[in-house]
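Quick review question:
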């Protein structure tokens, strides 16, 4: 089954961009996923192809019009495909959400520009507002590329059997342990002895403790959640943000 991605944007020329090369590019060429970049401006109704207007109540910038966006959505998003809107006001994207999207038939992503969307769009259509982090980008396109990259690498057969992604950061609620490779000695630093021991149980234990140390120091928020999940019964263990 092909994972069908639709991106609604004022800049369709930004796609596939970096997703046309490497892992994602090969997967697209192999038919594992498809990408349709839809020009929102094609759904404007005036001769100037206007998609925005001044904010009600005054203030700086322009706001994307609900009527134009709704027409673009209604014409381009297939029933049953989840529709996400890129916005810093959205719920932060998680690996758990990426996994659930990658397991489905595809995704449609609405990219904002200017000050963002007329809020009534979120009342009138089923749209999941998603943020890729606590900072402000100039447009949703880079966020859409991030989301699609994260989904595509998880599609069956894209990463290959050797690397399922199961051990990666966030999969177990922790950041991943550190990696090393040859040369054995570099600038006076050697690879940790345990990784050269050949003792798989010892290596697994070392990696687990490293993952815990690094998560605790770099991401106290993840660490708290991980600890909480370990002490709570399984049914209550999943936090709302991970649903
Ligand atoms: N006025 C908006 C606010 O303060 O929340 C910011 C608008 S931003 C300049 C323009 C567009 O970039 C947004 O509509 C959204 O599509 C995208 N964008 C910016 N930051 C983002 C983020 N952290 N995550 C996802 N999309 C983002």
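Suggested answer, residue by residue:
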């Amino acid at each position: 089954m092909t994972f069908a991605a639709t991106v609604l944007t004022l800049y369709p020329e930004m796609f596939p961009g970096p997703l046309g090369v490497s892992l994602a590019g090969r997967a697209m060429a192999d038919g594992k996923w498809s990408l349709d970049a839809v020009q929102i401006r094609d759904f404007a109704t005036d001769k100037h192809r206007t998609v925005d207007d001044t904010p009600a109540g005054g203030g700086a910038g322009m706001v994307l019009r609900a009527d134009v966006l709704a027409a673009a959505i209604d014409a381009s998003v297939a029933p049953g495909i989840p529709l996400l809107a890129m916005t810093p006001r959205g719920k932060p994207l998680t690996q758990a959400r990426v996994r659930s999207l990658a397991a489905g038939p595809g995704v449609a992503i609405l990219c904002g520009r200017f000050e963002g969307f007329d809020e009534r769009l979120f009342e009138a259509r089923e749209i999941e507002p998603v943020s890729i982090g606590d900072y402000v980008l100039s447009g949703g396109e880079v966020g859409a590329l991030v989301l699609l990259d994260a989904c595509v690498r998880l599609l069956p057969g894209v990463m290959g059997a050797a690397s399922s992604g199961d051990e990666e950061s966030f999969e177990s609620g922790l950041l991943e342990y550190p990696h090393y490779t040859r040369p054995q000695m570099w600038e006076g630093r050697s690879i940790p002895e345990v990784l050269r021991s050949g003792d798989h149980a010892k290596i697994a234990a070392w990696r687990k403790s490293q993952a815990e140390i690094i998560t605790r120091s770099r991401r106290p928020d993840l660490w708290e959640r991980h600890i909480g999940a370990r002490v709570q019964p399984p049914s209550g263990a999943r936090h709302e943000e991970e649903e």
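Why it works: Residues 86-89, 111-113, 115-116, 131-133, 135-140, 143 surround S-adenosylmethionine (CB under 6 Å). Strands lie at 3-9, 33-39, 52-53, 63-64, 83-92, 106-110, 128-131, 185-186, 189-190.
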